[in-house]
């Protein structure tokens, strides 16, 4: 039997991956009380528990530091978990605008921002992103845009991210892999079709240099990262 199919070897490899994940979380991305409370509130309000992982949060901070991000736009606040990571990457005077469709989710996110001590620099704006994005021209360009909302909307959000960007802006999208479905052209589900189109466009748009990295859900999902070229 090849080692790749040996059940004992597979179990040991899975255990090792778990242990590595725990050590990486503990070393690079420990959650403080405010981050833990954001997740607890998301659960308590019966909202979907689909927030990014701690390592993804820390990666957002590294990328925000690379981009010298002072203005960050998030599309999809959910319970504010990723927004806390992003807001904490801002320098003094920096701003995070987080767009959220649901008034009730926005309320949970605002409370999370207040608990995390970032309410002075992070705000949630309620509405369909297709309605709120066109109102942001006066606050652009954004240095980093993080897209983590309804998946069928991703192609439109990419258009807006490009309009609201400058050379060097980072455009990051969560859920760019989706167990491989986001890379397949035979989807009927509109959300998966949206993710597929997003990936196709960022891979070929001459204004962008892009990559997607399997780094969440045991390598089955992850961020797509695009930099707007000079
Ligand atoms: C879903 C959405 C997300 O943004 C995510 O990270 C995971 C799952 C979902 O809609 O199922
Ligand atoms: Mg997501």
Question: How would you describe what is shown here?
Answer:
This protein is an alpha/beta fold. Helices cover 42% and strands 18% of the residues. It is built from eight helices and seven strands. It has a seven-stranded mixed β-sheet, with helices on both faces. Strand 1, helix 4 and strand 2 form a beta-alpha-beta unit. The protein binds 3,4-dihydroxybenzoic acid (DHB) and magnesium ion.
Provide keyphrases for this structure.
230 residues; alpha/beta; seven-stranded mixed β-sheet; 8 helices; 42% helix; globular; binds 3,4-dihydroxybenzoic acid; binds magnesium ion
In short:
With 230 residues, the chain is of the alpha/beta class. The chain contains eight helices and seven strands.
Task: List the SSEs and their pairings.
Blueprint lengths: L6 H22 L4 H12 L9 H13 L4 E5 L5 H8 L6 E6 L2 H13 L6 E5 L2 H4 L11 E4 L6 H10 L6 E4 L16 H15 L3 E9 L4 E8 L2
Parallel strand pairs: 1-2, 1-4, 2-3, 4-5
Antiparallel strand pairs: 5-7, 6-7
Helix pairs in contact: 2-5, 3-4
Overall pLDDT confidence? 97
State the low-pLDDT regions, or none: none
Helix/sheet category: alpha/beta
**How many distinct helices?**
8
Largest sheet composition? 7 strands, mixed
Strand percentage:
15-25%
How would you sum up the global shape? globular
Order of helices and strands: HHHEHEHEHEHEHEE
State the separation between the terminal residues, measured CA to CA.
52 Å
Radius of gyration using CA atoms only: 18 Å
Largest sheet, order of strands side by side?
Answer: 3-2-1-4-5-7-6
């Amino acid at each position: 039997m090849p080692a790749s199919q040996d059940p004992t070897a597979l179990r040991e490899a899975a255990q090792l991956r778990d242990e590595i994940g725990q050590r990486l979380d503990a070393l690079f991305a420990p959650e403080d009380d405010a981050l833990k409370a954001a997740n607890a509130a998301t659960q308590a309000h019966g909202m979907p528990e689909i927030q990014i992982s701690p390592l993804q949060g820390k990666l957002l901070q590294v990328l925000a530091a690379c981009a010298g991000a002072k203005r960050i736009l998030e599309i999809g606040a959910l319970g504010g978990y990723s927004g806390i990571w992003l807001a904490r990457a801002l320098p003094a005077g920096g701003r995070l605008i987080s767009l959220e469709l649901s008034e009730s989710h926005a309320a949970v996110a605002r409370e999370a921002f207040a608990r995390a001590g970032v309410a002075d620099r992070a705000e949630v704006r309620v509405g369909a992103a297709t309605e709120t994005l066109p109102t942001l021209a006066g606050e652009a360009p954004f240095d980093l845009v993080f897209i983590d909302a309804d998946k069928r909307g991703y192609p439109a959000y990419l258009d807006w991210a490009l309009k609201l960007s400058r050379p060097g802006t980072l455009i990051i999208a969560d859920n760019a892999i989706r167990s491989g479905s986001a890379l397949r052209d035979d989807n009927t589900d509109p959300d998966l079709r949206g993710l597929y189109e997003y990936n196709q466009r960022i891979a070929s748009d001459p204004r962008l240099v892009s990559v997607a990295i399997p780094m969440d859900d045991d390598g089955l999902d992850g961020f797509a990262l695009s930099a707007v070229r000079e």
